[in-house]
Amino acid sequence: FLHSFILSTDRLGRRSACEILIAIRQNKWLNSNLLRVFELLHWFLKDEDLNTKRALGNILSELSRKDPEAVLKFLSLELTRGNLHTYWIAYRAMKYLVQSRKYRPRILQLLNITEYNFKGKYLR
Hints:
- The protein is mainly alpha-helical.
- It has 8 helices and 2 strands.
- The chain has helices spanning about 1-10, 10-20, 30, 35-40, 50-65, 70-80, 85-95, 105-110, and strands at about 115-120, 120-124.
- The chain has a two-stranded antiparallel sheet with strand order 1-2.
- A hairpin with a 2-residue loop joins strand 1 and strand 2.
- Helix 5 (about 50-65) crosses helix 6.
- The longest helix has 17 residues, at about 50-65.
- The protein is globular.
- The model has no long low-confidence stretch (mean pLDDT about 85).
């Protein structure tokens, strides 16, 4: 059902559908069904609407705080498909996780960059 809604609705509808998935700490369904959430997010990755891409980046950023390994694995798989929208979303999604020295080398390698610009600060 959601797949057909995502593909058939206008940009505001797609953005609204995407924002429904924003990971709020009290949302037990999201916390216990990350694989299902990733399946749903996959359908939004090719969307050209900037607000939908921002919402996706925010969702993945929030999810990366709960399960960084799952988000990195999801983005790694999606980035191999070569979609420029996915790259933009992945860059935005890593904005908090890249600050961790533990994950920074993997993120830089995943995004194929040598430094990450976050709020004017360059992380290497």
